């Protein structure tokens, strides 16, 4: 296993409920380190660009609306096997299917308002980190 970096977001449904610390603690308790973090209120253009891979999906409008409805915490998480580990800690996209103890099981409201985002592969992690952070903002 190798030390990896992944991109994570604490979405507006969670920041609105003051869950930034509670969710970050789950990452830390599972051995991931926050090596970059900032609070942004993303524009429609930023949200559409970030989620461009989903632009043909029926939920795209709802997704962009949700992501621009309040502040988001964008983070880089570092640790052993961080990309897969973070996906496991997050749980399934639909909280109704998320395993016990996962962030989405604990905190998500619905499949749309599911509290967190995490990169799904090394290529997307690199791309998504670059979308939100300059190299100088990542301090390991
Ligand atoms: P994940 O975030 O688990 O990687 P996807 O990449 O499939 O999931 O989808 C991106 C985001 O789009 C989800 O986290 C969720 O907020 C939203 N989404 C996905 N499927 C639906 C759906 N059927 N209805 C509403 N929103 C959805
Ligand atoms: Mg995804």
TrEMBL record:
Record-level Gene Ontology MF annotations: ATP binding; metal ion binding; nucleoside diphosphate kinase activity
UniProt superkingdom: Bacteria
Entry keyword annotation includes Kinase: yes
Enzyme Commission number(s) from the entry: 2.7.4.6
Residue span, Nucleoside diphosphate kinase-like domain: 3-140
Binding residues for ATP: 11, 59, 87, 93, 104, 114
Named cofactor requirement(s): Mg(2+)
Pfam families, sorted: NDK
Entry GO CC: cytoplasm
EC top class, as a word: transferase
Record keywords, A-Z: ATP-binding, Cytoplasm, Kinase, Magnesium, Metal-binding, Nucleotide metabolism, Nucleotide-binding, Phosphoprotein, Transferase
CDD domains to which the protein is assigned, alphabetical: NDPk_I
GO annotation terms (biological process): CTP biosynthetic process; GTP biosynthetic process; UTP biosynthetic process
Catalyzed reaction equations: a 2'-deoxyribonucleoside 5'-diphosphate + ATP = a 2'-deoxyribonucleoside 5'-triphosphate + ADP; a ribonucleoside 5'-diphosphate + ATP = a ribonucleoside 5'-triphosphate + ADP
Predominant location category: cytoplasm
Catalytic residues of the enzyme: 117
Record has Hydrolase as a keyword: no
Cross-referenced PROSITE patterns: NDPK, NDPK_LIKE
Protein location: Cytoplasm
PANTHER family: NUCLEOSIDE DIPHOSPHATE KINASE (PTHR11349)
Family: Belongs to the NDK family.
Known function: Major role in the synthesis of nucleoside triphosphates other than ATP. The ATP gamma phosphate is transferred to the NDP beta phosphate via a ping-pong mechanism, using a phosphorylated active-site intermediate.
Complex formation: Homotetramer.
Record-given protein name: Nucleoside diphosphate kinase
Gene from which the chain derives: ndk
